[in-house]
């Protein structure tokens, strides 16, 4: 009897301990994948069986509001910092910082100046400061030295490196002797072909099918490496794409002398730096120039874009209506697809899917903000979040019940430059340690009660024997 009880007690105690420690998100592995320019509704343009498999066995968010401007570098930096562009400082693919007197240009691959990235700290660095290792296959910014650090493993950017080679590196890093817990994987399409063909082109069908096959290849390799069931895979993108046309062109030279200003960034959000003393002249010339062009003085930029409190936002921005293209003159090339427009437009929105032990199965959520991914990643990796503009509370319904969810969540206060406050994750970390402590106390208390009962059931043998001796007649 006693040995059975002891056995049961040990099983129960082991169970309690394992529950306590299975809650430890330290063990979580996360692979974040971005297919550049994958618009949310591409999933339904052609059969995409691999994406649908992930959705059926994982989660999907229908509408992801990304950040203004809906360009590649600003949005990729938001995904890994949780910050709006005015707060993380990568406000465009092409920038000029008047304080640094320096330029940044994706077109010229002049993106390696650390100072453009250091207004924020990306998650691959925070993850490593917490004692883990990060690995990145071409994710924008991961081959730039930021705050004196690189990811533990990374690939210098080279567009000609195949998807398969990038996947091979990611798998190698996740399965090495000192494995990474965070992987970041980037692929340039369907953005490249979306610009070239325009999203409405029937030729986009095969491009989307090809991305689905690439996802299938990634899934196959993860299964082969025994990672598929243990790793949390998040598939997203930076922005969508909209159809442009030769009939929808705004030619700045028609309205404005090009000697009066510098065009820092082009379409569809023209960043205009007037030459000294020419601000009023430039503004007046552009303000009512074209019915499909809205011109803002920097201080008039709508609050909802979170796009005015940064030196790298130019004194005047001119924003084209959806599908319109801004050129200085028509001798410049025109793309049939573009993005960068108002982030309230559905066509600018990317996909979001996730699969793995941390996520619910076959669950669809209506909407989220791309800033919410960062606190979710920090939560999964169990690392402290830097101040951010997202909220874990808004996306915690994506998580399965086996992951710790009942924690003290508070939304990070809106961040403005110079007014950063600690993000929500610090409180979550505290809640996690409180959980572990409480779990341990329960186990200890259980043991005390159990041994007390065990001792009491053996030591007071005399009175009970006396009781038996006192009743001989009954037994007879
Ligand atoms: Zn992009």
UniProtKB/TrEMBL annotation:
Gene3D superfamilies according to UniProt: 3.30.1360.180, Alkaline Phosphatase, subunit A
Name of the molecule in the record: Ectonucleotide pyrophosphatase/phosphodiesterase family member 5
Source domain of life: Eukaryota
Keywords: Membrane, Signal, Transmembrane, Transmembrane helix
Naturally occurring in which organism (per UniProt): Pipistrellus nathusii (Nathusius' pipistrelle)
Keyword presence, Signal: yes
TM spans (from-to): 431-451
UniProt xrefs under CDD domains: Enpp
């Amino acid at each position: 009897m006693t040995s059975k009880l002891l056995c049961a007690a040990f099983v129960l105690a082991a169970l309690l301990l394992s529950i306590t420690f299975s809650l430890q998100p330290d063990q979580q592995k996360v692979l974040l994948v971005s297919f550049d320019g994958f618009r949310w509704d591409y999933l339904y343009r052609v059969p995409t069986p691999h994406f649908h498999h992930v959705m059926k066995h994982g989660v999907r968010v229908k509408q992801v509001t990304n950040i203004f401007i809906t360009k590649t570098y600003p949005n990729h930096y938001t995904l890994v910092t949780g910050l709006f562009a005015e707060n993380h400082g990568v406000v465009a693919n092409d920038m000029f910082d008047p304080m640094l007197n320096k330029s940044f240009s994706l077109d010229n691959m002049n993106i390696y100046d650390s100072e453009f990235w250091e207004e924020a700290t990306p998650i691959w660095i925070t993850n490593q400061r917490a004692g883990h290792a990060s690995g990145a296959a071409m994710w924008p910014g991961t081959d730039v030295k930021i705050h004196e650090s690189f990811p533990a493993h990374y690939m210098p950017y080279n567009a000609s490196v195949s998807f398969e080679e990038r996947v091979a590196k990611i798998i190698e890093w996740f399965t090495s002797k000192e494995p990474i817990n965070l992987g970041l994987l980037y692929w340039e399409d369907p953005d490249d072909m979306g610009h070239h063909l325009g999203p409405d082109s029937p030729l986009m069908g095969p491009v989307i099918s090809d991305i689905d096959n690439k996802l299938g290849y990634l899934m196959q390799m993860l299964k082969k490496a025994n990672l598929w069931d243990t790793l949390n895979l998040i598939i997203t993108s930076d922005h969508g794409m909209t159809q442009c046309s030769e009939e929808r062109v705004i030619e700045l030279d028609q309205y404005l002398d090009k000697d009066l200003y510098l065009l820092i960034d082009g379409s569809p959000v023209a960043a205009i730096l007037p030459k000294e003393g020419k601000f009023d002249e430039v503004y007046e010339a552009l303000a009512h120039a074209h019915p499909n062009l809205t011109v803002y003085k920097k201080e008039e930029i709508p609050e909802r874009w979170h796009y005015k409190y940064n030196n790298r936002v130019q004194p005047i921005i001119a924003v084209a209506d959806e599908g319109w293209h801004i050129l200085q003159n028509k001798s410049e090339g025109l793309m049939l697809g573009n993005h960068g427009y108002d982030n309230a437009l559905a066509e600018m929105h990317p996909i979001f899917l996730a699969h793995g032990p941390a996520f619910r199965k076959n669950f669809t959520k209506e909407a989220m903000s791309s800033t919410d991914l960062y606190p979710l990643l920090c939560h999964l990796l169990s690392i402290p979040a830097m101040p951010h503009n997202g909220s874990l509370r808004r996306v915690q319904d994506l998580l399965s019940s086996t992951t710790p969810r009942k924690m003290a969540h508070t939304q990070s206060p809106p961040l403005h430059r110079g007014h950063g406050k600690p993000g929500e994750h610090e409180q979550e970390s505290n809640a996690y340690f409180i959980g572990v402590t409480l779990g341990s106390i329960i186990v200890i208390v259980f043991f005390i009660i159990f041994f007390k009962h065990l001792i009491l059931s053996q030591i007071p043998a005399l009175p009970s024997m006396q009781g038996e001796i006192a009743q001989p007649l009954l037994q007879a």
